[in-house]
Write a structure and sequence with these properties.
Length: 238
């Protein structure tokens, strides 16, 4: 069923962020288990007929599901991050209907055009990865929001690259991906004029305007674990 479809995201995170998320999940799971144990102790009477006892256990499970849905229980990691993603989108004013991007735009592998080269795991503070499954509609909103929010900056960075090039590192990576000899890529890059400092500063400003799906989910994890709680505007203010 469409309502059960999920979209998976793999996100690089810091060790500290992952530890906080796992600790939060563990604490909430224990709290949920204590509540279930207390309800069973309260409602399951010794000598109760088997069918009646099964009905009690079923009702307790239904209550737990409802309390996860309302946020009274955190539930699984996916539940936790899903709620935080919804809050993060609202806080940024991105929780809306976004138009569908041009065909194939969201299916391109790798990072969006113009974002700084991704750091290898272990550099830049990212040492771990988190996989989360979001409801399909929510995951699609995350992808579309990142695309359209970044569109103007991406186009400006494309124009910047047409004039100044992407630099030797990017040229070599793209040449390797496309099967072009490194020598040819180096010759092409060497033939371009060097970007002055002012142009490099403009590139950095444009890069800072790009929002990735990873940015959104990392911010949501920080929100879920209490590290980032910006005020969420009312619907009327959006």
């Amino acid at each position: 069923m469409a309502s059960m479809a999920r979209m998976k995201f793999h996100v690089a995170v810091t060790e500290e962020s992952l530890k906080r998320l796992n600790a939060y999940c563990k604490d909430e799971r224990k709290r949920e288990e204590r509540w279930i144990a207390e309800r069973r102790q309260e409602l399951l009477i010794p000598g109760m007929p088997r069918r009646a006892a099964a009905a009690v256990r079923r009702d307790i499970r239904v209550q737990v599901t409802q309390m996860r849905r309302t946020g009274e229980f955190a539930g699984t990691r996916d539940h936790i991050v899903t709620r935080a993603v919804r809050e993060e989108l609202r806080a940024r004013g991105l929780d809306r209907k976004w138009p569908k991007p041009p065909e194939g735009e969201l299916d391109t592998p790798g990072r969006p055009w113009g974002t700084p080269p991704s750091q290898p795991m272990g550099a830049g503070g990212y040492t771990d990865r988190v996989s989360v499954n979001l409801p399909y509609d929510l995951g699609d909103t995350v992808r579309r929001a990142a695309h359209w929010t970044s569109k103007t900056a991406v186009e400006a960075l494309q124009e910047w690259a047409d004039r100044w090039g992407d630099g030797l590192d990017v040229a070599l990576r793209e040449a390797e991906r496309d099967g072009i000899p490194a020598e040819l890529a180096l010759m092409a890059a060497a033939g371009r004029p060097s970007a002055p400092q002012s142009a490099l500063e403009i590139r950095d400003q444009l890069r800072a305007q790009i929002l990735t799906t990873g940015d959104l989910i990392r911010a949501s994890i920080e929100r879920a674990t209490g590290r980032s709680q910006p005020e969420i505007p009312d619907e009327a203010e959006k």
